[in-house]
């Protein structure tokens, strides 16, 4: 190997052409930013100590204490000290995705224990005694139950929704009473699984009026669907005999919470959830419920087509990236002109619709439902005019950018082709983000778990409050306290046990009802508050560290590919080598860069918190100052993210520490500022157009197939599966092109480094492809036998 002369440049790297040379500083690497790594490890150790402290001293049950309809904490507030469990009059009403926001629209009361047996008033009122029925009743308040003296009173209380009409044997789950299906319920199946109104009349008393009959029918049908879904969750259209359903119920009943069984009712329950979700944004409740059912029906019926289309989109993305290795220019120009033609088609269609609705007088739909509002939007000529103007502006801007940057686009296409070669050669890089996602999920779960346990540490604080009535009025009950509670006043701190013992209504000496000692908050000690801040900052630091680790591994992989003379000599385990190289040598650099971003993000969070706190003062000066600071730190964070990304690439290439890599990257980019703006952003623009093309193609193909093949599948709205496909396709293409973007960014910096480091002489040959050298007017002056094969 006499060809490999030991001449070194200013970087301490060989100058002569060397077949074994694999890029700057690939061999003699050392650990970078070790002090930062030590600090990061110590920080993680402190985070682990906080986690074990939270697990030892926290109790999630404190955060999960149920609250009844009167805003009383079961088992904690003075009026419900011995009632630890929450009972729902109708648990079906709680199956709503917005329950955490809007609450469960059914009476909820605290009880001493969950029902140990099933109760159905309409089937038991003629077979049970009054005393037995009253004992089984669960009412909103003890006063409601105490005011019942006959079966007529029971009927009236149930009709007024002051007592539950029915309930099923339950077991506590997070202190909530959840259904438990037993043999007793199975025995009741014949009385609730009736098919029509004639069967219903057999269960109704002779003097039942029409409204009671209809109400009973609705309740029975609900019970029927619930029990049928629970005992026969399989989607079998045939009618199962009652005796067989009873047998299935006995065989399939569980001793745990019913929530597991409820999850089997996918179709009906999901339809109810979507319907309730639509109802929150639409005043037509009946139409919203029907729309929700139709949407879920379309999703279920088109699940196979949606999954198939998404798989085909993933395959198309892989093929798209692979084809760019040979057809980068035609494909990217096709993407550009495809988007332009699509915009022209949109402009034509919008103008056509504008002309039509402008010359067609119509009366707007006055119905208050979602479908009518959409029709009004589509029949408004001005909306089509605004859309056509917007599309024209987009078309002109994209066309001008293409004309002005056409020469830079050629170089961008060459870089894109190089990126396609790199990704196709090391195809495992496409699936590497799955590893990052797994780490993200672990970090998120850990941070949330530690935060919840920390939030549960502290003393429960209570204060004396008056209950607010259903109409929003504050009660005027005269509650007087004496003895140890003599200083208790409304709004002041109190103790529930002491309040219950020493506070009473002045005139009757009875326990206070409308005034209670209620739970206020968990008073976290100062060290717990600081631990919460530590936990938040730890999550920020760790999340940026994971993101940086993924970027550096990919950068090292693609840099090694670029700096290999013969690309077919790239090692098979290049990604594994890059992973190990990053994990062994450069974790300190990642810790340094992620720390800077974490500090900047923490400052932004603090500014947002301050902004929320001072909003009530409505001071224009402070708002202006905070707005400027928030804008500044937002720009700073984006700049730091850009700088970190390129610093990680330079570190992967040269193996230097973070500060040196950031300085080298910044100087290199500033020396080639026009190329950075023209090339780097052009490639991002091209990738965006490619994602739009693949996503739009998947959506159009799905809609066309559904619209032209009604015999294969019949749907209520073809737009439902099409929308799901568009969202899923965009996410899939974003993942693939995210890796592709990292490849192009890495190769771009290598390209700039190559242009500055080498001049094409035998001592310093170019590493770039022949196509790039041809575009730039460069070439390697090497003997024919030493030319690199492409």
Automatic annotation (TrEMBL):
Pfam families: Choline_transpo
Stretches that traverse the bilayer: 34-55, 305-324, 331-351, 384-405, 426-454, 536-563, 584-607, 619-636, 685-706, 726-752
GO CC annotations on file: plasma membrane
Keywords: Glycoprotein, Membrane, Transmembrane, Transmembrane helix
Keyword Glycoprotein: yes
Principal localisation: membrane
Record's keyword annotation contains Amino-acid biosynthesis: no
Molecular function GO labels: transmembrane transporter activity
Stored InterPro entries: Choline_transptr-like (IPR007603)
Subcellular location, record wording: Cell membrane; Membrane
Topology of this chain in the membrane: Multi-pass membrane protein
Superkingdom as given in the UniProt entry: Eukaryota
Function: Choline transporter.
Family stated for the protein in its record: Belongs to the CTL (choline transporter-like) family.
Protein name: Choline transporter-like protein
């Amino acid at each position: 190997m006499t060809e490999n002369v030991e001449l070194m440049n200013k970087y301490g790297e060989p100058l002569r052409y060397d077949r074994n040379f694999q890029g700057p500083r690939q061999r003699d690497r050392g650990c970078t930013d070790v002090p930062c790594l030590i600090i990061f490890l110590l920080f993680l150790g402190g985070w682990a100590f906080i986690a074990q402290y939270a697990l030892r001293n926290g109790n999630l049950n404190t955060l999960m204490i149920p609250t009844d309809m009167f805003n009383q904490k079961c088992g904690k507030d003075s009026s419900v000290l011995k009632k630890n469990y929450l009972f729902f009059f109708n648990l079906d009403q709680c199956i709503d995705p917005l329950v955490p926001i809007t609450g469960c629209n059914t009476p909820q009361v605290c009880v001493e224990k969950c029902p140990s047996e099933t109760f159905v008033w309409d089937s038991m009122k003629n077979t049970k005694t009054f005393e037995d029925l009253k004992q089984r009743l669960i009412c909103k308040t003890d006063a409601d139950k105490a005011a019942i003296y006959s079966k007529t009173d029971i009927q009236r209380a149930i009709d007024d929704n002051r007592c539950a009409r029915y309930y099923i044997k339950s077991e506590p789950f997070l202190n909530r009473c959840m259904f438990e299906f037993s043999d007793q319920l199975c025995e009741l199946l014949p009385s609730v699984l009736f098919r029509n109104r004639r069967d219903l009349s057999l269960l109704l008393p002779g003097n039942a009026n029409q409204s009671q009959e209809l109400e009973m029918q609705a309740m029975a049908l609900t019970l029927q669907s619930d029990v049928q879904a629970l005992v026969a969750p399989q989607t079998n259209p045939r009618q199962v005999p009652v005796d067989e359903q009873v047998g299935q119920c006995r065989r399939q009943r569980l001793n745990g919470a019913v929530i597991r069984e409820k999850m089997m009712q996918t179709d009906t329950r999901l339809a109810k959830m979507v319907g309730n979700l639509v109802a929150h944004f639409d005043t037509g409740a009946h139409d919203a419920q029907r729309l929700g059912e139709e949407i879920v029906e379309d999703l279920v019926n088109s699940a196979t087509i949606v999954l198939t289309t998404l798989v085909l989109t993933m395959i198309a993305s892989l093929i798209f990236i692979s084809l760019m290795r040979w057809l980068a220019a035609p494909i990217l120009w096709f993407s550009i002109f495809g988007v332009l033609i699509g915009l022209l088609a949109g402009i034509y269609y919008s103008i056509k619709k504008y002309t039509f609705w402008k010359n067609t007088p119509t009366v707007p739909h006055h119905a208050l439902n979602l479908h009518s509002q959409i029709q009004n939007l589509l029949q408004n000529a001005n909306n089509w005019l605004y859309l056509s103007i917007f599309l024209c502006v987009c078309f002109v801007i994209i066309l001008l950018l293409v004309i002005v940057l056409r020469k830079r686009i050629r170089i961008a296409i060459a870089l894109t082709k190089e990126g396609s070669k790199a990704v196709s050669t090391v195809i495992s890089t496409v699936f590497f983000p799955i590893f990052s996602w797994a780490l993200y999920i672990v970090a998120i779960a850990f941070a949330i778990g530690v935060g919840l346990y920390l939030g549960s540490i502290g003393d429960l604080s209570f204060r004396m409050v008056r209950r607010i009535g259903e109409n929003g009025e504050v009660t005027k009950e005269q509650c007087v306290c004496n003895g140890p509670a003599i200083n208790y006043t409304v709004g002041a701190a109190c103790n529930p046990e002491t309040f219950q013992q020493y506070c009473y209504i002045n005139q009757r000496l009875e326990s206070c009802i409308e005034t209670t000692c209620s739970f206020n908050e968990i008073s976290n000690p100062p060290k717990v508050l600081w631990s919460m801040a530590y936990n938040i900052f730890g999550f920020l630091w760790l999340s940026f560290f994971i993101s940086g680790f993924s970027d550096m591994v990919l950068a090292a992989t693609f840099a090694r590919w670029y700096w290999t003379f013969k690309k077919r000599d790239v090692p098979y385990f290049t990604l594994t080598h890059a992973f190990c190289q990053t994990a062994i040598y450069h974790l300190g650099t990642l810790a340094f860069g992620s720390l800077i971003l974490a500090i900047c993000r923490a400052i932004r969070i603090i500014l947002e918190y301050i902004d929320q706190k001072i909003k009530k003062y409505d001071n224009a000066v402070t708002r202006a100052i905070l707005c400027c600071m928030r804008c500044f730190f937002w720009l700073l964070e984006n700049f730091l993210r850009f700088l970190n990304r390129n610093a990680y690439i330079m570190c992967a290439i040269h193996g230097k520490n973070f500060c040196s890599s950031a300085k080298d990257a910044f100087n290199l980019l500033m020396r080639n500022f026009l190329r950075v703006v023209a090339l780097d952003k052009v490639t991002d623009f091209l990738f965006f157009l490619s994602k739009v093309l693949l996503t739009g193609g998947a959506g159009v193909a799905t809609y066309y197939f559904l619209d032209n093949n009604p015999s294969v599948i019949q749907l209520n709205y073809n737009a439902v599966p099409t929308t799901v496909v568009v969202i899923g396709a965009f996410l899939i293409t974003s993942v693939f092109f995210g890796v592709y973007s990292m490849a192009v960014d890495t190769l771009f910096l290598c390209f700039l480094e190559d242009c500055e480091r080498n001049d094409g002489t035998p001592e310093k040959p170019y590493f770039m492809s022949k196509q790039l050298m041809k575009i730039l007017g460069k070439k390697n002056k090497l003997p024919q036998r030493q030319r690199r094969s492409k």
